[in-house]
Amino acid sequence: MVDKHKKWANIYLVFVFILMYAPIFYLIFYSFNKGDYMAGFAGFSWRHYIDMFADARLMQMLVNTFIVALLSALIATLIGLFGAIGIYNTKQASTKNVLLSLNNVLMVSPDVIIGASFLIFFTMIGLKLGFGSVVLAHIAFSIPIVVLMVLPRLNEMNPALIDAARDLGANSYQVLSRVVLPYAWPGILSGFFMAITYSLDDFAVTFFVTGNGFSTLSVEIYSRARQGIDLSINAMATLMFLLSLVLVIIYYFISNYSAANSKKKKGNRVVVH
């Protein structure tokens, strides 16, 4: 009976993966189409990739997208890290729950509402829409992601480690750099990569806060899709998918390396005692 349930669970899992990845592979397949449409495959060709790299505007949008993603992810990771530490150090449960609830507001709010709110806010303070407004918006919605990635790692940490470090004469900076940060490193790394992924993927918020003269790839693809099908967009989407896959693989190896080092250190402590 258990084997039967396991079999159906595996079938369901395969079905879900097919449902998720079939449109992506369909898009990738037609990026190599010799023809101009996705109505039929006319033969294998690289011409849409050549057209993509020859399109200066599309390349500029790609550069803009990665600059925004890396910059916003870096700043959001720093802010989110100290936010998570602040929530972790909060003693009162009610205050901690309030802080967590406030942190999660941007996670549960619709993107359209968030984008419209940022648009109104930036207009009220007189901030010109463009690179700065997009980066600020991406930082804002990435911070809760980082907090949610880092906080569980901090909660897993034994408070006795911090107490022991202070008993040995460590100051606040040394406790942070030699105890807290090394322990929370996998969560920090996860938050950074998730922030990059969310930024690369975002359309709704960016659409509201971008201005004339600056745009990201998602907004550019949307604008071009309204004018008709262009398979160079398929080629760009394929490139983005592969880059995202590379990021996931890098994160996987770094996480495994961190976990292996952590186990090794624990084993060495046992041997010493």
- The helix/strand order is HHHHHHHHHHH
Overall shape: it is globular
Q: How many individual domains?
A: 1
Roughly what percent helix? over 70%
The overall pLDDT average reads 83
Q: Which residues form runs of ≥5 with pLDDT under 50? A: 269-273
How many helical stretches?
11
CATH architecture annotation name: Orthogonal Bundle
CA radius of gyration: 23 Å
Supply the helix-strand structural class: mainly alpha
Strand content: under 5%
CATH class: Mainly Alpha
Report how far apart the termini are: 47 Å
Oligomer: single chain
Q: Strand count, sense and closure of the main sheet?
A: none
Please name the fourth-level CATH homologous superfamily: MetI-like
Q: What is the secondary structure topology, with strand pairs?
A:
Elements (H helix, E strand, L loop, with lengths): L1 H30 L15 H8 L1 H34 L3 H16 L2 H15 L5 H26 L2 H9 L4 H30 L2 H6 L7 H11 L3 H42 L1
Helix pairs in contact: 1-11, 2-11, 3-6, 3-8, 4-6, 6-8, 7-8, 8-11
Provide a concise account of the structure shown.
This protein is mostly helical and 273 residues long. Helix content is 83%, strand content 0%.
Overview of the structural elements:
- Residues 62-251 form the ABC transmembrane type-1 domain.
- It holds the Pfam family BPD_transp_1.
- Belongs to the binding-protein-dependent transport system permease family. CysTW subfamily.
- The protein has 273 residues and is mainly alpha-helical.
- The chain has one domain (56-264): MetI-like (MetI-like fold).
- Helix content is 83%, strand content 0%.
- The protein contains eleven helices and no strands.
- Helix 3 packs parallel to helix 6 (131-156).
- 26% of the residues are buried.
